[in-house]
Amino acid sequence: MAETSSKFPHPLYEKYVLQPFFRDAETYYYEPMLAANRAHVVMLTQCGIMSEENAKALLLALDDVEEKGLKNLGYQSGVEDLFFTIEQRLIEHAGVAYGGNIQLARSRNDLGYALTRLALRPLLLKTIKDLIALRRSLHALASEHTQTVMPGYTHTQPAQPSTMAHYLAGILSVLERDTKRLQFAYNTNNESPLGAAALTGTGFPVDRELVASLLGFGGVMQSTYDSIASSDNLTDTASACTSIGINLSRFVHDMLFWAMQESSAIRIDDSFIQISSIMPQKRNPVVLEHIRARISRMIGFANAVVLQCHSIPFGDTQDIEDEIFPQLFGSLETAQEILQLYAAVIDTLHINVDHLLQRAIAGFTTVTELADTLVREAHLPFRQAHSIVSKTVNYALANHLAPADITAEVLATVSTEVLDSPLELDETIVQAALDPVAFVNKRTGIGGTSPEATQAVLDQQAKDIDADEDWLSMTNQRLTDADAQLKAAVDRLLV
What we know:
The protein has helices spanning 11-28, 30-46, 52-68, 82-94, 96-99, 108-144, 164-189, 208-214, 224-229, 232-259, 286-309, 325-347, 353-362, 367-378, 382-398, 408-415, 427-433, 436-442, 451-494, and strands at 149-154, 157-163, 191-192, 219-220, 266-267, 350-351.
């Protein structure tokens, strides 16, 4: 026989649903709810829906709630959530006649979705700030190493000489786009659903634009159905976090390889190194492992957001309300940890410049230029030049020759396997083609490896960082101005 009970809530529902969600609401919704309530009261009054006396009573009650703080708003069994807890306090302070009007022309639906958007805003802006700071750190490091020659890799094998600045400029490029993705997510999120009520709007003559302005929203969501049903502000945020995670994880992968003793390209600062409990020689760059693990955590949170928004009704549903808090806010909070840790690692990183140059020389990374030289100097078709150089490398490996041991004589010997007669090139031409520094300096086109070409990219990236900082500053200022506007409107009613 089924167990029945008329008393709400069931103990397990309270334990696993109501209590955890109340704690989340205390963390993320408390301040936004106070602001939203004040803006709602101001709007109702200016629209003639609420009397100034009623408004004053509610605003004083909200001041009392704020003064007493969260400690006075603990979870109470039978009271569903923080919204009802605060409403209860307002009624206690202002009386039923006035306190009960806080929900005029409003639903928990449009309020709840507005609170999520308000709670997301500072987290998005803080993540953008941290991402810009990481880009600043990477840009400073790149600017010091425009002439630091190193092997570039394709398919995990040494490919061609590059520079550390050239590599880092690539990382900076993807992180600049990630910043734009976060800005896009912010703009999608920063629209007001207030005034949509349950889903159809309200019969009261509310001013949706006014309440949006008082809360610093960039505008009003035009469709009231969209206002309480859409989730793309959540998935846009998750997608931005996923992209950041994927891009940084590939950078971490490279850095862990560079930090290996066999590679010795970089030295992680001692402040991030943990030792072995048994092996005295060990320098474990575990900070990179922690960053990698947290990237996985962030992507996991972000993917959970997307999955939770998938295949649900287009309407108000708990899937994209309380249930999504840990994943949604967790993805951004973890992103901030990752970005701050990474910037600190970059700020203290040591690059082994001389060693990287030797690695660039040792890996036969310059032989593409040797093939190009055969085209220019010997007037060979590229595929034929490619074949000669490929055979020359195999000859060198078979005879235990280093790249520096490849001479015009060796090239002439090998070329007879492809050509009717041996190639006759000046030794200086051959050695110039095999010089990794010359290889790097010769690539002067847009985005090339030469110090001048790379510096041009870095100069543009510095401007991009400045522009993103300006965007962040202006966005924060708009929120500050909205806070001042709301405070002034409240103060006028309290006079």
